[in-house]
Specification:
Layout lengths: L1 H45 L8 H5 L3 E13 L1 E12 L10 E9 L4 E12 L2 H9 L2 E2 L6 E3 L16 E7 L2 E4 L6 E4 L1 H8 L5 H5 L8 H12 L6 H4 L44
Helix pairs in contact: 1-4, 1-6
């Protein structure tokens, strides 16, 4: 019987070897699909002017994360989980390649049911991104988080200066949401599939990890599309209303936009304190 097993074993080995390239391509396609879905979330939000992240907040953002289809289910104890993407912005205003992330959180108390929601996070400080890059990151502990303002000139709650502003869209309604205690994690497997080798968040943020993915380019373009045109933020005649109790001194005007480079990029940060409301 052993002489019959050998050809079968060889055939099985050949099948595995033939499927390896297809399996790798399929794995990367999953990450591309995640980017496509995240892009759709941003495009749909931009189509509703009264229900999206304010332009002035995106203009001052150090990073933006989109986690589509976050499932929130509960039976006595609640659980929230979803997979998404994050991009950071460098000092020249250019966005990094995407970092694949996962979001997981829970809650206690009597509750039952399930729903799906799209979550958007706007990182208003460099420190919040640096903390994320160091390892597991908990909203509210590793960085302060607050429900974000809405609309073209939406105001943050009076006196709130959060490091991260959070949003959720469920059943067509987009609103700020509290996500304290929710963990934001680097998705090691997804990033390895997408870039073809093991990478860290810093590798991607600093541009060491390269990709020519069209879905990545379109996602970055969707983020940039929600911002003011180059130079417009610094020259705006009517800035959004201020919600903080006392007005701060006027910020120094932004420098001229960086010269065009290959790939999608944004303009330099318009404010030395991203995330705070313009004055």
């Amino acid at each position: 019987m052993s002489h019959l097993l050998q050809p079968r074993a060889l055939l099985g080995l050949l099948s595995v070897l033939l499927l390896l390239p297809a399996g790798a391509a399929w794995a990367q396609n999953r990450e591309d699909e995640r980017l496509v879905t995240a892009t759709q979330v941003l495009e749909e939000l931009r189509a509703t002017p009264d229900q999206h992240v304010p332009t002035w907040l995106l203009d001052r953002a150090y990073g933006v994360a989109v986690i589509p289809n976050v499932i929130k289910g509960a039976f006595i104890f609640g659980l929230r989980h979803g997979n998404g993407v994050l991009v950071s912005r460098d000092d020249a205003g250019r966005f990094s390649n995407p970092v694949f992330i996962s979001l997981t959180g829970g809650s206690a108390g009597w509750q039952i049911g399930a729903q799906a929601a799209d979550v958007v996070l706007v990182f208003a400080t460099r420190r919040s991104l640096e903390n994320f890059a160091r390892g597991q990151f908990t909203l509210g502990a590793s960085a302060s988080v607050a429900a974000g303002p809405l609309g073209r000139t939406g105001e943050a709650a009076a006196g709130v200066q959060a490091e991260i502003y959070s949003y959720s869209r469920a059943r067509g309604l987009f609103a700020g949401v509290a996500l304290d205690g929710t963990a934001l994690m680097f998705d090691r497997k997804a990033n390895r599939n997408f870039y073809g080798h093991d990478v860290t968040a810093d590798d991607i943020f600093l541009g060491t990890a390269k990709t020519d993915s069209e879905s990545a380019r379109r996602f970055i373009a969707a983020v940039v599309a929600g911002m003011s045109p180059p130079g417009a933020a610094a020259n705006a005649a009517s800035p959004p209303p201020v919600a903080t109790p006392a007005a701060a001194p006027a910020a120094t005007a932004a420098s001229a936009p960086a010269p065009p480079t290959e790939g999608v990029h944004s303009f330099p940060l318009a404010d030395p304190k991203p995330g705070s409301e313009p004055h």
